[in-house]
Specification:
The complex is a heterodimer of chains A (about 230) and B (about 300). Chain A has about 230 residues and is of the alpha/beta class. Chain A contains ten helices and ten strands. In chain A, strand 9 and strand 10 form a beta hairpin. Chain B has twelve helices and two strands, in the order H-H-H-H-H-E-E-H-H-H-H-H-H-H. Classes of the chains: A alpha/beta (about 230), B mainly alpha (about 300). Bound molecules: adenosine-5'-triphosphate and magnesium ion (MG).
Chain lengths: ~230, ~300
């Protein structure tokens, strides 16, 4: 589905990613873990086309997309949930949801979105700015689901969420996964990561240093937590 | 106490007159600053040439009349459209090359463009103003209680208000407006959600320019059509945009009318106050609310 090879990125002189490589197969949910500043957000921004100082190959469904504009990538099926949630203050909840085009057959109808996330229905006419952090996070994910993206790119969706919302998010991702969701999840929360994902790429100082499965994470949890600094 | 009885109906009439004069001026400020706000929001360009496009709108109406015998009503549509075409050329051929650079470049380019357009028109038409007849349907005056007020000017107020409300509606309540709002708020992110923002940029610029052209047509029967007619309103319009908040739609309209009325009321006290009040208000707004009355700094 998504294959990344030799991905390097820079901010001016400073190199933020060094030959990063990973793959996400159809129906797989993988995570990118790493401490603050490791380059997780930069990786996602390279994928969606918002970070231009980069080189390397990004292949989506067999097509090399690294030369494409961000809008073309989105229409090809990248569903982006940015780290700041990307909720528009000048748009209502409804408008935030319906801004992106529907790009795939798995696009969720609005009815389903509102049935799954009743909080959003209650506030559908409210400005995006009026939502709580948790509501914004849900809206951001709902927006990507509504697009019918082929692969979801989620940047720390659990950050700042109350435990009960984290729980809901986990259920929701697991449900969606059973329906064939493919996703790349950036996550600091190891418990959450192992609960929803199949594989984990450990990113340190811009390099993929290890690939771990859930069992390996469980065995080395202490050491990993220390590494992540959480 | 002594002042009470002196308030004659004549004073009241003058005050009413000034309020309406203020609304007429405000109608122009609102249309002009609305265009500036939309353009600034989408392109991050402070379009100094806005006054020049306003002037071109007036000239377009004048020339349509002179050369083709086309009157005011068709000109109200044709002249802004013609000016918008010039705007499209400017965006595609010139401004487009400056995106991503310091906004100062856009400002300098449009400043140079202003001089070019103004002087070009001066070479062709000279400096003295050309008259443009008020449409016959709107000749004469209407009685407004204490005063009689020219029908055409009342039309200008109503028409401008209607256009502003329509633009507000289009931006706040339609899908097209939603895309524009999203692009204004977060241009890059909006692209990552599958919207071809670049394509909307040209259209938005043309639309803002068309509003300036429209204001020019409305001005033609009231003010002499001359190459420098845009110079003064554009200065006040910049003050209006600052007061309303850069890029804020509602701010541009409300501040436009408010500034017009404020200046006219100031002129009752002392004619010299007319413009001073506006710039004093601008200074106060900048000190107290740098983002403008309706603006938010984050949106930048
Ligand atoms: N706009 C920027 N300009 C310069 N350097 C940047 C910029 N954004 C990120 N960096 C640097 O690039 C590196 C990777 O940053 P990135 O945001 O991708 O990390 P991250 O893994 O997402 O961290 P976090 O867990 O804090 O979100 C860091 O060293 C960071 O300081
Ligand atoms: Mg990050």
């Amino acid at each position: 589905m998504l294959e990344v090879a030799g991905l390097s990125a820079w901010y001016g002189q400073a190199q933020a990613l060094k030959k990063v490589a990973f793959r996400v197969d159809d129906g797989e949910l993988i995570t990118l873990v790493g401490r603050n500043g490791a380059g997780k957000t930069t990786t996602l921004r390279c994928l969606v086309g918002l970070h231009r100082e980069m080189e390397g190959r990004i292949v989506l469904g067999g097509e090399e997309i690294s030369g494409w504009s961000p809008e073309r990538r989105a229409r090809a099926g990248l569903g982006f949930v940015p780290d700041d949630r990307g909720i528009y203050a000048t748009l209502t909840v409804d408008e935030n949801l319906t801004l992106p085009p529907q790009v795939g057959p798995t696009a969720w109808p609005l009815d389903r979105i509102y049935a799954t996330f009743p909080v959003l229905r209650e506030r559908r006419r409210a400005s995006g700015a009026k939502l709580s952090g948790g509501e914004q996070q849900i809206l951001s994910i709902a927006r990507a689901l509504r697009m019918g993206a082929r692969i979801l790119l989620l940047d720390e969706p659990t950050e700042g969420l109350a435990p009960v919302l984290v729980q809901q998010l986990r259920e929701m991702l697991l449900d969606a996964k059973r329906e064939g969701l493919t996703a790349l999840l950036v996550e600091q929360n190891l418990r959450f990561a192992t609960a929803v994902a199949d594989r984990h790429y450990l990113l340190a100082q811009g390099e993929i240093v290890e690939t771990l499965d859930n069992a390996a994470v469980a065995v080395r949890e202490r050491e990993l937590l220390r590494h992540l600094g959480v | 106490m002594r002042r009470g009885p002196r308030r004659t109906s004549m004073d009241l009439g003058y005050a009413t007159l000034q309020v309406f004069n203020g609304l007429v001026n405000g109608a122009f400020y609102a249309l002009l600053s609305l265009g500036l706000a939309v353009i600034f929001g989408m392109l991050r360009v402070v379009n100094f040439a806005h006054g020049a496009f306003y002037m071109l709108g007036a000239f377009a109406a004048y020339l349509l009349q002179l050369e083709l015998g086309i009157g005011f009503w068709p000109a109200l549509v044709l002249a802004p459209a013609a000016v918008a075409l010039v705007g499209i050329a400017v965006e595609r051929l010139l401004l487009r090359r400056l995106y991503g650079l310091d906004p100062l470049y856009g400002f300098l380019l449009t400043f140079g463009l202003t001089l070019l357009i103004q002087d070009g028109m001066r070479v062709r038409f000279g400096l003295q103003g050309q008259p443009y007849a008020t449409p016959t349907e709107l000749g004469g005056s209407l009685s407004l209680g204490a005063i009689a007020y020219p029908a055409y000017r009342l039309f200008v107020i109503a028409f401008s208000l209607a256009v502003c409300v329509a633009v507000w509606y289009a931006i706040e309540r339609t899908r097209l407006g939603m895309v524009v709002r999203a692009s204004i708020e977060r241009r890059d992110l909006t692209r990552a959600f599958g919207i071809s923002v670049d394509r909307w940029v040209t259209g938005t610029f043309a639309f803002g320019i068309a509003l300036a052209g429209l204001a020019g047509v409305l001005a033609a029967p009231m003010r002499n059509v001359s190459p420098t007619m845009g110079a003064e309103p554009v200065i006040l319009t910049f003050a209006v945009v600052v007061i309303g908040g850069m890029g804020s739609i509602a701010g541009a309209v409300v501040a436009g009318f408010a500034v017009g009325v404020l200046a006219s009321l100031g002129a009752i006290v002392n004619p010299a106050l007319e413009n001073i009040l506006v710039f004093a208000l601008m200074a106060v707004v900048l000190l107290v609310r740098p983002a403008g009355l309706f603006g938010s700094l984050e949106a930048r």
